[in-house]
Amino acid sequence: MPATKPALFSSVFKMKCPNCRKGNMFCTPHIFPLGRLLEMPDRCPNCNQKYELEVGFYYGTGYVSYGLSLGVLAIVFILYTLIFGLSYKDNSVFYALGAAVSITLLLQPWLMRMSRVLYLYMFVQYGKGSRMKTHHH
Q1: What is the DSSP letter of 43?
Q2: Cβ-Cβ contacts under 8 Å for 44 (sequence gap 6 or more)
Q3: pLDDT tens digits for 77-133?
Q4: Which are the contacts of 127, defined by CB distance < 8 A and separation ≥ 6?
């Protein structure tokens, strides 16, 4: 029976290597201690895919993290509105904003990891390795 390709969605959320979708992208499965939150092996322990494609590669994750944070803020704000309603008369707008900001801050460590995962998935195709051109001097 041939091996089946692991699902993209579950591989992203399990933070698996984009090339093989089996190896872990982070050294620890949990976010604590926070100082080790973003520690990654140099290469996938399963398929040897390089995780940092070039020096400073992960600086681009700031944009992904920003987008994810805005998404979380919007979702929480919308859910608050649907569940509790919104009005300027009773300050519920400020409660909704406070809830959205608080939840986004609490999720920030996970969002930071997820932004790295999504960013690497943009540059590495399943079963093909990196699509980035490397320049040798």
Answers
A1: B
A2: 17, 19, 20, 22, 23, 25, 51
A3: 999 999 999 987 898 999 999 999 999 999 999 999 999 999 999 999 999 887 665
A4: 5, 19, 20
In angstroms, rounded to a whole number, what is the distance separating the alpha carbons of residues 126 and 121?
Answer: 9
Give the H/E segment covering residue 115: helix 92-123
40 — alpha (psi -120 to 50), left (phi > 0) or beta?
beta
Q: Model's pTM, two decimal places?
A: 0.87
| Structure confidence by residue, pLDDT tens digits, 55-75 | 999 999 999 999 999 999 999
Residue 109 to residue 130: CA distance in whole angstroms? 26
Take residue 26 and report the two structure tokens written for it. Answer: 């982070």
Residue whose tokens read 């008369």: 89
Q: Read off the amino acid at residue 25.
A: M
